[in-house]
Amino acid sequence: MRFSACHLLCVMAWMLLVSPAFCTSFSTPENQIARSIAECFIEYHGKHGEWPDKWSELDESFGRSLDEYFDYAPPSKRYTFVKGVRLSTPPDAKLLMVMRKPTYEISLSDMLLVGLKGPGRYLIFEKPGGSVSYAWVDEEHVSRIFAEENQSLPMADHEPETPSIQAVRKKIFWRRAIGALVVLVPLAAFVGWRLALRRNAKKRLRTNPSLPDTLS
Question: Do 96 and 81 form a contact (C-beta atoms < 8 A)?
């Protein structure tokens, strides 16, 4: 019985505290920014037959300032144009733009718990055939891509985490705090109950030494 109770508490702790790390992606504010930038590349190339290399050209394709539209995370401060970097996946893809520094991204676990994955960056790249796509790539892989091309990673920006990431961090903190209480309160009650039983048993032994000590 003692093993079963402890085992159940361990399972509850894993579900509440660990499982958010096993996450899958879904649409997020960061994802929307990367998708909009990729669409601007496609739009500009369709009109001019070349890839944009200035933010004003991307703004032209977007129809307004990207920084004003995504004012909570201005793209021009957080992304930079890149030339001369090829990707191995997809084969022969060319990197067009990358986030200036690694960040975290919102994710969703199999239990529908919101969590964070990372660090990593969004990449905007040209695929063979001329289409443009984007992808979230973990920081270790990004560093390897630039190292293989003998290029330095871009200079990091000093922008804070987006409000959405900060909000998720708070949710994770409170979820873990509540999870700890869910585990610790029953555990403390169980330990207190066992100690009370032992104290009562010892009292009975002192008053009647002939009784067997069943809790020893």
Answer: yes
